């Protein structure tokens, strides 16, 4: 089957009106960011797409953030599928004014370690400053979700209004059926479900696993609040030498058995959203006996840490509280004949370390690469989709391992200090490596995208410098041994720092092996020293990461 190209090069096109008599190529259930991105990609490729909202679309906590690697995944989607609007998701200034007005900037990642009953010790803090040429941000998801629907509509997808949400979905021999609240039954040759935990397709195919196939366990309490004091107003910046304003980035308050993630939406001159996304994640076994009412439980936690108590003293929730005793869930089945469960419909884990948005973009990329050819060939055999489902499982397991180790590392600052360096090293080299792979694909004969479809590699699904995978694995195994009581936190931390100091692929200017290098900035002299190291001492596969486009990124990640 050959699909007629229906979208002009500008992508400026009005979608046809919704018609329940028509049989669409793909129905996307859920008007979320992931659903909108996928619908836009498919429509840009000439696929007839119907987007059906879900009643759960706007019920998830909102507090996601990006890192430079996230931006590169967005850029891959934009370049591979010819949608420049998606590239703007990686560069905050390029986004529409309404998205920037409601969302926040992210100039740093800050980690502040707290001990019960004590003021925060500035020596137990870490801050990674985002290089200036990047433009990371805090996503106000309701606005962002709506924007992705606009993009999808612009490229020709039919997007039903939010009041017309899905009330049932199933598959038949020739495709899927979607019933909506107005009584219509819509037809599509394939259904992608991004509707969330209440998925009708998942319920018809085994429901959720009784016990999630994840290691982390969290009680998640979340809301948006106004009146959250910027941390630099709680504690003087003079106490934290060389740090930038905490409120201009993502702040993570860490303590034994949990963390609070804060994302401000009004931390830039164009910001008009006074709220802060507040997400409290607790180990249920370590924080038993808290009140059932979410606000009381939240206050019971922050009152145990003097600086947190001060920061939230004047804060008021402006959205209903989310409180889920066990946040983690996995669907028993995530794909079948003519359907696929994507993102939070398939799995839900802790909203931490910027992985939620990143994984959504990664899986959209993988699924689009299979679904577009399937529509064009009119062949929906399950084997290619099984490969994407396995990849989604691998990403989930990889993310879960990081989160489990983060929870363990949060038990002692020295271990967290070491863990955070390994995490940052992975993020930096993943960003550069994916960019290198993308550029190779774009310049290849016939634009061969195979190098960015090496899903058999698992969570790191493209070539990276030799040594990175082993260093990550050894570091996480050490932390896992701490969790089992087989190794002390100090011994594990010392081992990780020692490995980071001796590995030849780790740029020495990162100072990742130095526990005291807790604030990361870049300067021109350090950029020049980094270039000299790359030209004279760096391993060959690290040098290959250097391109004209990559030089600035590589040299701007050096430590203080």
Distance between the termini: 57 Å
Number of strands: 21
**Outline:** globular
User: What is the helical fraction, as a range of percent?
Assistant: 25-40%
Structural class computed from helices and strand pairing:
alpha/beta
The low-confidence parts are 1-12, 551-560
How much beta, percentage-wise?
A: 15-25%
Mean pLDDT: 92
Major sheet description = 9 strands, mixed
Radius of gyration: 23 Å
Helix tally? 17
Note down, in words, how this protein is organized.
This protein has 560 residues and is of the alpha/beta class. It has helices at 33-44, 68-81, 84-87, 97-102, 141-154, 200-204, 231-234, 294-302, 306-311, 355-377, 382-409, 413-443, 468-483, 489-502, 524-536, 540-543, 551-555; strands spanning 23-29, 49-52, 104-106, 108-113, 125-129, 136-138, 158-159, 166-172, 175-180, 185-193, 219-226, 250-255, 258-264, 276-282, 316-317, 322-324, 329-330, 335-336, 339-341, 347-348, 519-520. The strands form 4 sheets. Strands 4, 5, 11, 12, 13, 14, 15, 16 and 21 form a 9-stranded mixed sheet that branches. Strands 1, 2, 7, 8, 9, 10, 18 and 19 form an 8-stranded mixed sheet that branches. The chain has a two-stranded antiparallel sheet with strand order 3-6. α11 runs antiparallel to α12. It is globular, with a radius of gyration of 23 Å.
């Amino acid at each position: 089957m050959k699909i007629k190209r229906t979208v002009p090069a500008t992508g400026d096109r009005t979608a046809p009106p919704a018609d329940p008599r028509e049989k669409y190529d793909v129905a996307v259930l859920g008007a979320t960011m992931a659903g909108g991105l996928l619908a836009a990609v498919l429509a840009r490729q000439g696929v007839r797409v119907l987007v059906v909202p879900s009643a759960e679309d706007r019920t998830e906590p909102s507090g996601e953030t990006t890192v430079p690697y996230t931006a590169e995944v967005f850029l891959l989607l934009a370049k591979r599928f010819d949608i420049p609007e998606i590239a703007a998701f990686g560069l905050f200034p390029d986004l529409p004014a309404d998205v920037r007005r409601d969302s926040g900037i992210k100039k740093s990642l800050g980690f502040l370690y707290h001990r019960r009953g004590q003021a925060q010790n500035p020596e137990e803090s870490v801050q990674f400053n985002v290089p200036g040429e990047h433009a990371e941000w805090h996503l106000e998801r309701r606005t962002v979700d709506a924007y992705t629907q606009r993009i999808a509509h612009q490229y020709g997808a039919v997007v039903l209004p939010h009041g017309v949400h899905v009330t049932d979905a199933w598959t038949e021999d020739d495709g899927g059926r979607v019933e909506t609240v107005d009584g219509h039954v819509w037809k599509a040759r394939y259904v992608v479900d991004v509707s969330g935990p209440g998925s009708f397709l998942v319920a018809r195919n085994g429901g959720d696993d009784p016990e999630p196939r994840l290691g982390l366990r969290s009680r998640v309490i979340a809301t948006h609040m106004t009146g959250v004091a910027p941390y630099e107003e709680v504690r003087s910046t003079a106490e934290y030498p060389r740090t930038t304003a905490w409120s201009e980035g993502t702040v993570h308050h860490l303590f034994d058995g949990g963390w609070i993630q804060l994302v401000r939406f009004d931390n830039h001159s164009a910001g008009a959203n006074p709220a802060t996304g507040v997400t409290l994640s607790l180990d249920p076994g370590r924080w038993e006996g808290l009140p059932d009412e979410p606000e009381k439980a939240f206050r019971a936690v922050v009152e145990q840490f003097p600086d947190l108590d001060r920061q939230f003293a004047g804060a008021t929730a402006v959205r209903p509280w989310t409180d889920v005793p066990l946040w983690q869930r996995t669907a028993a089945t995530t794909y079948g004949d003519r359907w696929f469960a994507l993102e939070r419909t398939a799995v839900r884990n802790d909203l931490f370390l910027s992985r939620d948005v990143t994984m959504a973009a990664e899986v959209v990329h993988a699924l689009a690469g299979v679904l577009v050819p399937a529509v064009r060939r009119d062949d929906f055999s399950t084997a290619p989709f099984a490969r994407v489902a396995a990849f989604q499982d691998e990403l989930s397991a990889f993310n879960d391992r990081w989160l489990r180790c983060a929870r363990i590392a949060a038990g002692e600052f020295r271990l967290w200090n070491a863990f955070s360096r390994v995490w940052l090293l992975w993020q930096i080299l993943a960003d550069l490596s994916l960019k290198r792979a993308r550029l190779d694909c774009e310049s290849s004969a016939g634009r061969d995208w195979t190098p960015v479809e090496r899903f058999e590699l698992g969570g790191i699904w493209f070539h990276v410098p030799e040594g990175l995978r082993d260093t990550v694995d050894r570091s996480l195994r050490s932390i896992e041994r701490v969790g089992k009581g087989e190794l002390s936190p100090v011994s594990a931390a010392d081992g990780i720092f020692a490995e980071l100091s001796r590995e030849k692929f780790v740029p020495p200017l990162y100072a990742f092996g130095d526990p005291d290098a807790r604030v990361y900035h870049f300067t021109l002299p350090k950029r020049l020293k980094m270039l000299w190291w790359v030209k004279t001492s760096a391993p060959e596969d690290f040098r290959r990461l250097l391109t004209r486009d990559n030089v600035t990124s590589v040299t701007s990640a050096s430590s203080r």
